[in-house]
UniProtKB/TrEMBL annotation:
Binding positions (substrate): S65, N117, E162, N169, Y193, Y245, V263
Keywords for the protein's UniProt record, in alphabetical order: Acetylation, Hydrolase
PANTHER family hit by this protein: GLUTAMINASE
EC number: 3.5.1.2
Subunit structure: Homotetramer.
The protein, known as: Glutaminase
GO terms (BP aspect): glutamate biosynthetic process; L-glutamine catabolic process
Length: 309
């Protein structure tokens, strides 16, 4: 077990918190701009149900790009890996999360991976169902199962704010539609995608999802295989190679934990075979990752030798 107590974790949060001043809260989705730059929270969820937490753990935040790993796991379960990877690639880009450039310059117009926005939009398009509501319900039920919290829902204000301003994501969708990667109405897909990104929870909930990935897709309490082992493995590999976008290489070297970030400041970590981590720190660095959250993961990884490499 790392950290003998929440006090020990609290000391690491205080050390990392100084970094919140250096970063900046995302405001390209206007509603996210309301976050408190100084907030920082961490939760660690062990397979035996023990939980350690420190900081502003009562604060809820929207998943944003953290949701991309969860939607990927769902479509891999529903459609199988051949179907999914015929439409989205497996390679890191080295570009920012919302970049459009590789779609046009690559010989095949399919998005390079499911963690960049273009790839995530293609993945969300694959969620089965006859309406946005039924497709969103599938995703939400999957999250309820992993968190064991059926009260989790999406934040309407953030969803609406992104829906009204997501012009670049619409451009990515039109490009994908032109190239036959997607074939649905773009406004409908944007409705589903912005709801997915606005699913709201706290760090403890996020750590609970992290532990399911860490334990090869098994719910540690019930013993149920929620995600097939092979799919959990694929998701964790994407977290290592693409989870932090164009900072993934440095993150793998310095920290070495499969992790996925979002512009709300959330980071989900899955330390294989050990525990799940949920972090919230809305002050971001230039790559759109939680600046204090990354510092905190660096401290945890160094102090407790968590790197998998
Ligand atoms: O599509 C977007 O731009 C947001 N809903 C999610 C982007 C995001 O979280 C990137 N992560 N660092």
């Amino acid at each position: 077990m790392i950290c003998n107590s929440s006090e020990e974790l609290h000391a690491l949060v205080l050390e990392a918190k100084t970094y919140t001043k250096i970063g900046k809260v995302a405001d390209y989705i206007p509603a996210l701009g309301k976050a408190n730059q100084n907030d920082l929270a961490v939760a660690i969820h062990y397979p035996n149900g023990d939980c350690l937490s420190a900081g502003d753990i009562e604060k809820k935040f929207t998943l944003q790009s953290v949701s991309k790993v969860i939607s990927l796991a769902l479509v891999l379960i529903e459609k199988g890996s051949e179907y999914v990877f015929n439409r989205v690639g497996m390679e890191p880009t080295g570009d920012p999360f919302n970049s459009i450039v590789k779609l046009e310059t690559m010989a095949l117009a399919k998005p390079l991976n499911p963690m960049i926005n273009a790839g995530a939009l293609a993945v969300t398009h694959m969620i089965e169902g006859t309406s946005v509501e039924s497709r969103f319900d599938r995703l939400l039920s999957f999250i309820h199962e992993m968190t064991t919290d059926s009260t989790i829902n999406y934040c309407e204000e953030v969803a609406r704010s992104e829906f009204e301003t997501a012009h670049l994501n619409r451009a990515l969708c039109y490009f994908l539609k032109q190239n036959l990667i997607i074939n649905e109405d773009i406004e409908q897909l944007m409705d589903l995608y912005t709801k997915q990104c606005s699913i709201e929870m706290n760090s403890l909930n996020l750590a609970r999802i992290g532990v399911v990935f860490a334990m090869d897709g098994i719910d540690p309490t019930s013993g149920k295989q929620i995600i097939p082992k092979e799919i959990a493995r694929i998701c964790k590999t994407f977290m290592v190679t693409c989870g932090m976008y164009n900072a993934s290489g440095e993150f793998a070297i310095k920290i070495g934990i499969p992790a996925k970030s979002g512009v709300s400041g959330g980071i989900m970590g899955a330390v294989p075979g050990k525990f799940g981590i949920g972090i919230f720190g809305p002050s971001l660095n230039n790559q759109g990752n939680s600046i204090a959250g990354i510092k905190l993961l660096e401290l945890l990884s160094k102090n407790y030798s968590l790197s998998m490499f």
